[in-house]
Amino acid sequence: MKKNSIKNIRLNSEVQKELSSIIRDVKDPRVSPWTSVSEVYVAPDLKTCKVWISVLGSDEDRDNTLKGLSNAAGYIRHELAVRMNLRNTPELTFISDTSAEYGVEMIRKIDSVVAEDNARHVDTPDDEAGEEEDN
């Protein structure tokens, strides 16, 4: 199976759906209820799987969730094997995904720059009236 084959893309999508469901069932108190699986990459040989996890909350919540998921990796892998009929059940590696937080920070910076730019270029009502009279 090639790296970006249709089969691999479909497999990644199915594994992502199943892992999202399984993670909701994990009873470890360290795993935040606001955890989502943002991306999954299953190696073509089905031996390893990288799982990018996004956690809504503080850095401490994210770290605790990753520790909890790493501890529960055996249970999660077993559940994945039960739910999906794969030749090999991949070894799971959980990675923190901070792209959503980065996006929010960039939007905040862009909004502040736009607000500063608008504050510099505000037309006064007198200027607009004078322009209309010239036309």
What does the largest sheet look like?
A: 3 strands, mixed
Q: What does the average pLDDT come to?
A: 87
Strand content: 15-25%
Structural class: alpha+beta
Question: Order of strands across the widest beta sheet?
Answer: 1-2-3
Rounded radius of gyration (Å) = 24 Å
The helix/strand series, from N terminus to C terminus, equals HEEHHEHH
* Count of helical stretches: 5
CATH superfamily of the largest domain: K homology (KH) domain
Q: Strand tally, please?
A: 3
Helix content: 55-70%
Low-confidence parts, pLDDT < 50 over ≥5 residues? Answer: none
Q: Give the second-level CATH assignment, the architecture of the largest domain.
A: 2-Layer Sandwich
Can you identify the CATH class of the largest domain? Alpha Beta
Can you tell me the number of structural domains?
A: 2
Tell the overall outline. Answer: elongated
Q: How far is the first residue's CA from the last residue's CA?
A: 69 Å
Determine the CATH topology of the largest domain.
GMP Synthetase, Chain A, domain 3
Element layout with pairings:
Layout: H1 6-25, E1 35-42, E2 48-55, H2 59-71, H3 73-83, E3 91-96, H4 99-120, H5 125-134
Parallel strand pairs: 2-3
Antiparallel strand pairs: 1-2
Task: Explain how this protein is built.
The protein is built from 5 helices and 3 strands; from the N terminus they run H-E-E-H-H-E-H-H. It has 135 residues and is of the alpha+beta class. The radius of gyration is 24 Å and the shape is elongated. Strand 1 (35-42) and strand 2 (48-55) form a beta hairpin. Helices cover 56% and strands 16% of the residues. The protein has 2 domains: 1-97, K homology (KH) domain (GMP Synthetase, Chain A, domain 3); 99-135. The chain starts with 5 loop residues before the first helix and ends with a helix. Strands 1-2-3 form a 3-stranded mixed sheet, with helices on one face. It has helices at 6-25, 59-71, 73-83, 99-120, 125-134, and strands at residues 35-42, 48-55, 91-96.
